[in-house]
Amino acid sequence: MARIRKGELPSGNIRKQVFDHFEPLFDDTGRPIIDPKTGKQKKKRVYISITRSSVDEVNLAKAEVKINKASKKQPANITLREVIEKYISSSDAVLSPTTVRGYNTILNNAFVSIMDMKISKLSTETLKEAVNQEAKRMTRGKKPHRISAKTVSNEYGLIAAVLNIYAPSLDTSVKLPARNPKKHELSPPDIIFNMVKGTEIELPVLLAMWLSFSISEIKGLYKSKSISSNGDYISIVQVTVKVGKKEITKDNAKQITRHRTHRIPAYIKDLIAKVETDQLVTLSASAVSNRFKRLVLKYKIPYMTFHDLRHVNASVMTLLNIPDKYAQERGGWKTDAVMKGTYMQTFTRARVEVDDTIDNYFESLLFGTPESIDQKYKAWLLLFDMEDNSENKILYNSFMAQKERIILLLSDTESQKVQHEMQHEKKNP
């Protein structure tokens, strides 16, 4: 039996392949697939297939393809701005409106030193210098300040992705400014609850602090779509985001793990029953955020944003020793491959116990017998290592210095108790 030659087809012809280019990989929702080892978007190799009747002919054709590829002129007359525009237009069907808006913002404001340069003129050194200049860029407005390291990183992420497609031979590996995330001092849940109780933002605040929903998820909640038929569960099936001056509702959340279902606590269920509209929260996202900010200022608690309520929720789960698997599932945070594999295994006995633990904590803290303000804060600060972490000692001392302001948030009975304690302290320093 004759030996089959390498690349020989059943017809007897010979086929060989020549590498052509890389293509970025996206998942079913249009999101980039990230390699967990490198943190970069995965790519697939695309080849040109050559078929001829003999080995000599196919080798000759292969050599011609390689020569043509090597001699092919780079797009000398196309600028970085033009390739980004091309990238956006070719992907706008699979990208969310907010992502497209963000890309256009980058296109119009970022990396002005290279945006109109021809990509054939770009080099790694040019990119390094451009990153350095961009990191110094000031924002516009009444109080200009340098843009954040996160903003620079997001902007360059788009540029690198585009250049990896249209200029694959260019090394885009550039050191970016280190991120320094802002951490706000978090007030305990009972303080926040007393601050918003009875206000028009009580429901969205509890949905964020108790169930760890973001404002875009809260805006996308409707009785007809999000509440189970028995009224016991609430699901994130869509989100509502603001694009320009218009609110847009979309089915795809930021991450697939954000599509999740929670049991509705009895108190929140009562609040939902009082909502007359199908949409649970009709206030705009900015209106909810601004009202929350005004309450923070009114009651003089440490500065925090509406989004920080999700951090309060995460801190509570840490305090209660909720296993990471369930904490990540409830919060909808992105996890590794193992966690993704168990994502759909919701409402097992263990998950129900987790929900019971969290609901019991909030219900006892918010509606149980009041304790002294000191005791409440000491319980809250068990989350921290008070002996080893000087920052958290400062946090505790900061609270102790503002007890008089916190009294505004307490019931009359507890206020009298704390005032009595403070008077006693003055008499007996």
UniProtKB/TrEMBL annotation:
InterPro entries: DNA_brk_join_enz, Integrase-like_cat_sf, Integrase_catalytic, Integrase_recombinase_N. GO terms for biological process: DNA integration; DNA recombination. Residues 179-360 form the Tyr recombinase domain. GO terms for molecular function: DNA binding. Gene3D superfamilies: 1.10.150.130, Intergrase catalytic core. Keywords: DNA recombination, DNA-binding. PROSITE patterns: TYR_RECOMBINASE. This is Tyrosine-type recombinase/integrase. It comes from Eisenbergiella porci. The keyword DNA-binding applies.
